[in-house]
Amino acid sequence: MKTLYGSIPDEIESLVAGQGLPKYRAVQLLDWIYKKNVLAWDEIRNLPKEMIQKLSGEIRLTALEPGEEKKAVAGGPTKFLFKTADGHFLESVLISRQDSSDDESEEAVVRGGRETVCVSTQLGCKIQCAFCASGQGKFTRNLTAGEIVEQVARIGRVTGKKITNVVFMGMGEPLDNFDATLRAVHILIEPWGFAFGARRVTVSTSGITPKILEFVKAVDGRVRLSVSLHSSIDEVRSSLVPINRRYPLKDLVSALRKINQDLKRDITFEYTLIADLNDSEEEVEGISIIAKPLRAKINVIPYNPIAEFPHKAPTPEAAERFCEQLKRRGLHVTLRQTVGRDIDAACGQLRLDRARRTA
Ligand code: SAH
């Protein structure tokens, strides 16, 4: 059965029309789910009981069931566990930031701080980046658009907080689940949907080059694009992000040039910094050659060690030094200081089997 979460106006209008109901009922339904984030039929108050009864025989309201909330570190991100209708578990993360000092974009400055939800897009991940927990288990399936956006609605409801930003940085590769990701993005940014400012929504990708171009065109460049770079040297990048063998740096960078120059869109790079692996002078030089012409911002994330990838996190001093070297070359760099406490690092820690164990 379909779900209201994940539906777009056309679909809700035909559902309502199919029940012989006037069109304004569709507008009300959209408002209840995407603006008021109701999670049960009986929370909907301005529709006749009989109408609710008919609708609930036709379509489910939600795609997920509540899971538990668990705070990893005091003051750090909160992880949420959800269960899908077919019995799988997925995790999302909420990170609260008091100030926006590390982000100079005007849109990022919100009175009272930022509340960012990091959503998962797949159960497991096929990309299998060497250092990422999400690719270690088996790939189960894509999430639906309803399952993606409902993570945002549920976290807002459970915490009572006003969610200000959404990042597609949880489990999965968003562009490997293209249609659902695109639909979820629309639901998040359209006025009839959650109505987030488009610059408050970020989609992060491991670099499926042809899909990046397609995606940027499909959203008309409105949402932010983040690319997981992790190395400027093909051999090293291929060992970390296997998809680099198929879409090597040259292709990736030329696609990003197009996006930056022809479509005039900003790009951010994520760079997971691993001791003695991708922290060399050569990388600093290589990153600068790639990022400078793009005027791309770089988020350096100290590696958060996982058992399957026995390498070390850089020391805080080494991470600082690496960033300084990049800055000296005129790049805009942000160091995600506290490993495991920041959204990017926390997002990389989502894994399917662990979600199962905690359930
Ligand atoms: N598949 C997409 C979305 C996932 S985002 C992508 O690759 O961009 C995952 C981000 O979490 C990556 O940019 C990576 O930098 C970060 N990450 C994953 N595992 C990590 C780890 N063990 N330590 C630090 N960061 C990690």
Fold and architecture overview:
The chain is an alpha/beta fold and 359 residues long. The protein folds into 2 domains: 9-58, DNA polymerase, domain 1, CATH 1.10.150; 64-358, Aldolase class I (TIM Barrel). Helix content is 36%, strand content 17%. The strands form 2 sheets. Strands 1, 2, 3, 4, 5, 8, 9, 10, 11, 12 and 13 form an 11-stranded mixed sheet that branches. Strands 6-7 form a two-stranded antiparallel ribbon. Helix 1 packs across helix 2 (24-35), helix 4 (145-159) crosses helix 5 and helix 6 packs parallel to helix 8 (249-262). It is elongated, with a radius of gyration of 21 Å. The two termini are 25 Å apart. The structure holds S-adenosyl-L-homocysteine (SAH). S-adenosyl-L-homocysteine binds next to strand 9, strand 11 and helix 11.
